[in-house]
């Protein structure tokens, strides 16, 4: 069951609990239908309602302990002795405090959504903005994230591309980035995350992050100037400073390659170009490229390739670029 389904059930339970008669009936019918259609939904609904039962149980205990608070006829305070007035006020205060604690605990456990943002950058342009929580975000060309600001967590899903986060520190409210099955948990820091198909690259500029996967649920900590690649849920530390620079160079409008396969170079170029870039033959993809290029003009990079590599590049009228292995001389 995904997060949107959970949020839908949360809304229905609120309507069922606090709504008008017609709203209650409608929400009840939909909850029943959801519970019958999915065992996960059924379990989630039961778990949620059990928390309400806990609240009711505590509320009943308080009523038994302080029966005067539930009596329909209550003497006005000016007819009570001073000591009785004080005790009555204390009981009311205790009941109110207990209720607030229980409600607060329930709300904290539910971790309700405060705000949500979907942010995407166009091909060929970067974006800079501030998220609702005060975190600074820089998105690379053709990149997309979803940000959910909740009561006790901040959750980002990197859907494609590259993102740089300068995280605003909020005690007891962690900042977590999900990219595929990988979780990157901020521990007060500035870091980049890149998603390339199922491969994820993380580079830390300041502070610490914890990277975890289903294969390594406790995760590994990475510090400033550290980087990591995650392939097939395996976390691979990157100790080479040049590779670290390569991971973060996009934020400055630069593409750095250090013995990079041309097949991977093309994948990078495609982030900055609407028309496709294709390999005409597999041999061309095995050629390696080293160099520093501007990401603002991907076509110039393509036209430069024949000058530094044994390849030919043809760009058609519709913008499609094809890269061929150069014939042997």
Structure overview:
With 329 residues, the protein is an alpha+beta fold. The protein folds into 3 domains: 3-110, no CATH class; 113-246, Jelly Rolls (Sandwich); 253-325, Phage tail protein beta-alpha-beta fold, CATH 3.55.50. The protein has 8 helices and 18 strands. It has helices spanning 3-18, 21-37, 39-65, 82-110, 241-248, 262-270, 282-285, 298-308; strands at residues 113-120, 127-130, 136-139, 144-150, 154-166, 175-179, 182-186, 190-196, 199-206, 208-213, 216-223, 227-231, 234-238, 254-261, 277-279, 288-294, 311-315, 321-325. Strands 1, 2, 3, 4, 5, 6, 7, 8, 9, 10, 11, 12 and 13 form a 13-stranded mixed sheet that branches. Strands 15-18-17 form a 3-stranded mixed sheet. A two-stranded antiparallel ribbon has the order 14-16. Strand 17 (311-315) and strand 18 form a beta hairpin. Helix 1 packs antiparallel against helix 2 and helix 3 packs antiparallel against helix 4 (82-110). The longest helix is centred in the first third of the chain and has 29 residues, at 82-110. The chain is elongated, with a radius of gyration of 29 Å.
């Amino acid at each position: 069951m995904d997060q949107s389904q959970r949020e839908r059930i949360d809304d229905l339970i609120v309507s069922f609990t606090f709504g008008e008669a017609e709203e209650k009936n409608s929400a009840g019918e939909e909850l029943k239908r959801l519970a019958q259609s999915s065992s996960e939904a059924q379990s989630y609904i039961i778990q949620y309602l059990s928390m309400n039962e806990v609240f009711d149980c505590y509320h009943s205990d308080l009523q038994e302990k302080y029966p005067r608070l539930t009596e329909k006829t209550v003497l006005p305070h000016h007819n009570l002795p001073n000591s009785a007035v004080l005790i009555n006020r204390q009981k009311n205060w205790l009941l109110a405090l207990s209720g607030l604690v229980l409600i607060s605990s329930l709300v904290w456990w539910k971790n309700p959504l405060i705000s949500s943002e979907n942010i995407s950058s166009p091909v060929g342009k970067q974006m800079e903005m501030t998220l609702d929580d005060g975190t600074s975000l820089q998105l690379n060309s053709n990149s997309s994230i979803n940000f959910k600001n909740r009561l006790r967590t901040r959750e980002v899903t990197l859907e494609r591309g590259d993102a740089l986060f300068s995280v605003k520190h909020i005690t007891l409210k962690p900042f977590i980035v999900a990219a595929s099955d990988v979780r990157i948990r901020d521990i007060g820091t500035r870091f980049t995350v890149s998603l390339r198909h199922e491969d994820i690259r993380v580079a830390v500029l300041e502070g610490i992050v914890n990277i975890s996967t289903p294969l390594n649920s406790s995760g590994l900590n990475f510090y400033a100037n550290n980087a990591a690649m995650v392939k097939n849920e395996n976390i691979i530390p990157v100790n080479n400073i040049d590779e670290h620079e390569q991971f973060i160079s996009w934020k400055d409008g630069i593409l750095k390659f250090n013995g990079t396969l041309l097949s991977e170079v093309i994948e990078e170029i495609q982030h900055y170009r609407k028309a496709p870039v294709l390999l005409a033959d597999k041999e061309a993809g095995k050629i390696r490229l080293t160099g520093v290029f501007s990401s603002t003009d991907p076509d110039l990079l393509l036209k430069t390739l024949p000058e530094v590599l044994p390849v030919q590049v043809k760009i058609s009228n519709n913008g499609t670029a094809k890269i061929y292995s150069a014939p042997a001389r």
